[in-house]
Write a structure and sequence with these properties.
Blueprint lengths: L1 H18 L15 E8 L10 E5 L2 E6 L3 E8 L1 E8 L6 E7 L5 E7 L14 E6 L4 H4 L3 E2 L1
Parallel strand pairs: 1-7, 4-9
Antiparallel strand pairs: 1-4, 2-3, 2-5, 5-6, 7-8
């Protein structure tokens, strides 16, 4: 009985992890939809550097970043909820208002509240709106 209960618990955990895995979807730019460039940088912190971080908006993921990488995405203007997470992790959100005349830059970094091994309760990563980096600063990142 004890072994059966234990197996059931492990099975439930495995199913919930697989169901919550992030997958990348291709982005398509529709010229009829007003959009803005959003640049997302992944910090070079050692903590969390062994896992990729998935980032997207409105419930879909469009980029996967390793440490010291960045990407530029065309995002429709308006209120957007950006989401970041590790592959099988709790997501963290940042809601921003995108305007066509002002590109936006965000830094993806390790959540300081993260506790290793408790990713189902505390998100591993967070997004912060930041000033866009200069060309010189950007040279230390790899474009994806």
């Amino acid at each position: 009985m004890h072994n059966m209960l234990k197996s059931l618990i492990y099975s439930a955990i495995a199913v919930s992890m697989l169901a919550s895995c992030a997958t990348i979807q291709p982005t398509t730019h529709n010229p009829k939809v007003e959009s803005v460039d959003v640049t997302i940088y992944r910090s070079g912190e050692l903590q969390g550097s062994l896992t990729d971080a998935y980032v997207g908006w409105d419930g879909k993921y469009f980029a996967k970043l390793a440490k010291s990488e960045y990407t530029v995405l065309k995002v429709p203007v308006g209120m957007r909820e950006f989401t970041v997470r590790a592959h099988a992790d709790l997501a963290n959100e940042l809601t921003v208002m995108l305007k066509s005349e002002s590109p936006l830059c965000m830094m993806l970094q390790v959540n300081p509240d993260n506790i290793v091994g408790l990713n189902w309760f505390v998100p591993s990563y967070q997004l912060k709106q930041v000033a866009c980096l200069s060309e010189q600063q950007l040279s230390s990142y790899k474009k994806i």
